[in-house]
Each structure stands twice: as structure tokens, then as C-alpha cells.
Amino acid sequence: MKRFKVLLIMLLFIGIAFAAFAQDTKTVEAPAAQAQSVAPVQVAQKIDTGDTAWILVSSALVLLMTPGLAFFYGGMVGRKNVLGVLMQSFTILCVISIQWVLFGYSLSFAPGNSFWGGLDWLGLKGVGFEPYKDYASTIPHQLFMVFQMMFAIITPALMIGSFIGRMKFSAFLIFMVLWATFVYDPICHWVWGVGGWLKELGALDFAGGTVVHINAGIAALMIAIFIGKRKGGEHKAILPHNLPFTILGTALLWFGWFGFNAGSSLGANELSVNAFVVTNTAAAAAGLTWALIDWIFHEKPTMLGTATGAVAGLVAITPAAGFVSALSAIIIGIFVSIFCYIAVSIIKPRFNYDDALDVFGVHCIGGVWGALATGLFASKSVNPAGADGLFFGNPKQFLIQIIATAVTLAYSFIVSFIIYKIIDVTIKVRVEEKEEIMGLDLTQHHENAYTIIE
Amino acid sequence: MKLIIAIIKPDRLEAVKQELYKADVNLITVNEVLGHGRQMGVTEVYRGTKEMGNLLRKVRLEIAVNENFVEPTINAIIKGAQTGNIGDGKIFVLDLVECIRIRTEERGGVAIG
């Protein structure tokens, strides 16, 4: 019966792809022929090869962040759950890649209404190689699509850290597809899409502070609260099984983040250089700050603390990367580690929720600080197309940032909760206690990460 | 003097340790081992190849005690490790011939505690 169900879902999947394909071939041929007959030379002139090359590379860099995140998280979990974490990350990579091509990109970026993009670009219909001026005028439209795809992939993957070791794989799969469709795609459209209402309002989010980090962070908190605490943590903390994995993951994230932020200028230009510089600066300042906090409060600076700080710094600079200077980035980096440290080591124990790897504490808190800091430190001298923040004489921008942050928090929490409850009522989200004790590697995937005796 | 060897579930180790501390037993050696009793392990699949009846992870405790500590130690292990399910493990009690503390060369009962 179970096999039959899975088979049915696969067939449905193939069916959708073929339907979209059939539509595609019918309608696309005509405009393609038209474009050719009008002026092929003009089309060729519009695309900038430097910009295109950089965004191609950036897309690959951002893709690498998801496996990087898998190792970042994988090292911090017990060894009975490490394959489960890697598997969840890679599954999101596969599933959202398909979702994005079939309908995710259309819902997010097609010129629909102010809420979401509608279905005009279903199956990439009309998304060709000509630049789409409203998004990026010097790179092929499909390149913009694939660059955005990588953001759509890593955002749900961020949530994996909160429900370590206790979510059923089938429930996980359904939750992620629905979450991408009903939470990520609309919020993405509000902030970045043509006609999106937060974009019209003037909210600044360079590379995804609201869309990616606040969004995933608050949904992760919701799951952590409602799925309940892990078994076996009553007597002591559940210890990381391989910290070098976590550091390797941090390095891959830091490296990939240059594509994430410096690529979000959608060209190889001054703006991407600014984003590159401030990204590195903020991560460095935040990593150092967290190490110092550890040193002051726990006697020794720790590697995990430094890595956590660096990631927090990267999170915080994300919305601000195209609008602030390097000196502002240092301040943003220092404060994000202070705020996130408070969230992780004071707020979490006080409220007693089991956000296992601090997705809320690092990504949501870091994202909120980044979004608000953008409203404080943004400067037109960095980016004339942006706006001035509170510290540069424009308090209105700070207010807009607060609105964008609050709306994202509320929408993501509520809609994620509805999706979660629907799945919990129908197939149950949490694994059986026995399975949780044995670990997800064996019970969900029939594999073991490590052998003791060959 | 007795040597108590216990095979327990890994996730019960922390509870057993807490019970042992309560019984004033503070000296233990812990090993990670593989094994199965009647429940015959689990299934694993690697690229379609099935591995049946594989061994499960267990934890092995060794505790050397004087006679008056034997029953408290056994009770503490049971209290910490018992869930009532198959696979809770076993306790073996062996006679201990000699015990020597290397630092002081003390022998017998004084060397244990």
C-alpha cells in the first residue's frame, strides 16, 4: 500500500512535468520566432558577459551553501542522526529545484498581484534567455531564475536545525513542499517580486534578511515549540558528534555567502564589491565577538562559538550588504553576536523550547537585527538606488524596516503553523519514541553513518 | 570483591550514572559495544543490498565493588536501565580475585573504593 502511494506521487509528479512541457512547446515557439525576426543583434547586445559570468558563479556558490549547511548541522547532532540531517538537506535541494521550475518561480516572481506572482510563468513558460528588465537588465532571465532558485532551496533547509532527530521523513517532505509554496513564495514576491507590496512600500532587503532568515527562523521556532523536546536530553545536553564537520560547514557557508550577497547585485559591479567587503567584515567581527563572549563568560574561547558567531554575522549583513559601509558592517557584526548569544543562552533556557541547533536564536534574531540595522545604517553614498537610514537622517526607513520584519514574522509563523497542524492531524509529524531513541539514520533511512567494528 | 558487568541501552547510560551516584558508586568504566539478544537487530540497506539482523549499539559498564556494595549497585543499574522493553540488557556478577591500585600498590578491598 505504502509503495503504491509513493508510486502514485511519482507518477503525478511526472504528469505535471509533462503537462507543463506540452504547454511550453505550444506557446513558446511563437515569441521565440518573433524575437529572432525583429532584431537578433539587439538581444545579443543587452546581455553583459561579465555580469552573466559572475551570476553563474554566484548561483553555484549559493548552491554549495546547502550541503555546507548540512555539514554545519550534521556535525552538531548525535551520530545516530547525522545521515538524517544530510538526507533532509539533499532532499530539499532536489525537491525545491523541481518545485521552482514547475511553479515556484512563477508564484514568486511572475508579475501577478501584490500578494503573489500567479501562474503566468508556470513551467518556466516565457522565461527565456532575454533579460527581464524589471529584475536584471544585463543577464539572461533564466539565469536570474536559477540564481533565485538557490535561495528558495537554502531557506527551507535552514529550518532542519530546529527539529533534529524527531521528524518523520514523510511528514518532513510534505511540510517542505507546502512551506515553500505557501510561505516562501508569497513572502519572496512581497519583497522582491514586481508589484510586491513590501517592495512598493520601500522595504530594503538586499539578499534575504526577511525573505530567508527571519522567515525560516520563525517557522523553525514554531516547529520546535509544537513538535516538543527531544528524548534523552533530561540529564545533560546532547553533545555534538563531530565539530570539525561543523567548522567545515561554516567555511563552506562563509565561502558560498559571497555568492549570496555579492551576487545579489545581479551584476559584476561596484555594488557587488561593496557587498563582498561588508559580508566578510561582518562575519569576521561577529565571529571574534562571540569568541570573546565565550572567553569572558565561560573562561575559554570556543571553536563552536566562533563558528556560530561568524554565521550570525553573515545572517545579519545579508539584508544590509548592498546599502551599508564596511565600518557599519563591523558594528552590525559585533551586535549580532551579542543579541544572538542572549537569545541562545538566556532566552532559550528561560522559555524551555528545544530549538536544537538554534535556528531561531541565530537566523531569526540575526535576521531581525540585520533588517533593522539596514534601517539604521543604510546610506545613499553606498548605493544611490537604496535609501538613507535613521543614522543618515531618514527615520521613515527604520519604520518601514520594522513593518517588513513584523509582517514577515506574523505571516510565516501563522501559515507555517497551519501547514504543520494539517500534517500532524493527518499523518503525524513526530516519529515514535522507539525510533527516536534508535536514531533517524536507522529508522528513517535504514543506514548507519559510522561502523564500530568492520 | 565482585566485578559487575552490565550491558545496557546507550540512551539509558546517563540515567544509570545518576542512579549509581545516588548509591555512592562513583567508579565505573564504560565501553561502546555491539550486540544483540533475542530481538535480532535491525535492517540496513546500501544501494539495494539488504543487511539483515545487524548488531545494535549497546553500552557495557564495568564496576568493581566490595561485597556490601553489590546489591546497591545492581539495584541502581536496574533502576536506571529498565524500560520494560526487549533489549534492556543484562547484568553479570563475577568473583574478583584481586584488585591493585597502581599509584599506591594497595591491594584488596581498600584499593577498590
Strand content of chain B: 35-45%
Radius of gyration of chain A: 22 Å
Q: Could you give the distance between the termini of chain B?
A: 11 Å
> Count the strands of chain B?
6
Mean pLDDT of chain A: 90
Strand content range of chain A: under 5%
Enter the CATH topology name of chain A. Ammonium transporter fold
CATH topology of chain B: Alpha-Beta Plaits
Indicate the low-confidence ranges of chain B by residue numbers.
none
Structure description:
Chain A is mostly helical and 454 residues long. Chain A contains 16 helices and no strands. In chain A, helix 10 (270-298) packs across helix 12 (326-351). The model of chain A is unreliable at 27-45 (pLDDT under 50). By secondary structure, chain B is of the alpha+beta class. Chain B has one domain (2-112): Alpha-Beta Plaits (2-Layer Sandwich). Chain B has 3 helices and 6 strands; from the N terminus they run βαββββαβα. Chain B has a 4-stranded antiparallel β-sheet, with helices on one face. Chain B is elongated and about 60 Å long. The chains are: A mainly alpha (454), B alpha+beta (113). Chain A binds chain B through residues 80, 231-232, 234-236, 434, 437-438, 442, 446-448, 452-453, and chain B through 9, 11, 14-15, 17-18, 32-34, 42-46, 55, 57, 85.
Keywords:
heterodimer; A: 454 residues; mainly alpha; Ammonium transporter fold; 70% helix; 0% strand; B: 113 residues; 4-stranded antiparallel beta sheet; two-stranded antiparallel sheet; 3 helices
Would you spell out the secondary-structure blueprint of this structure?
The complex is a heterodimer of chains A (454) and B (113).
Chain A: H1 2-38, H2 40-46, H3 49-76, H4 82-109, H5 141-158, H6 169-192, H7 197-201, H8 209-227, H9 243-262, H10 270-298, H11 303-317, H12 326-351, H13 359-377, H14 395-427, H15 433-438, H16 440-445
Chain B: E1 2-8, H1 13-22, E2 29-35, E3 42-46, E4 49-54, E5 56-65, H2 70-81, E6 89-95, H3 109-112
Antiparallel strand pairs in B: 1-5, 1-6, 2-5, 3-4
Helix pairs in contact in B: 1-2
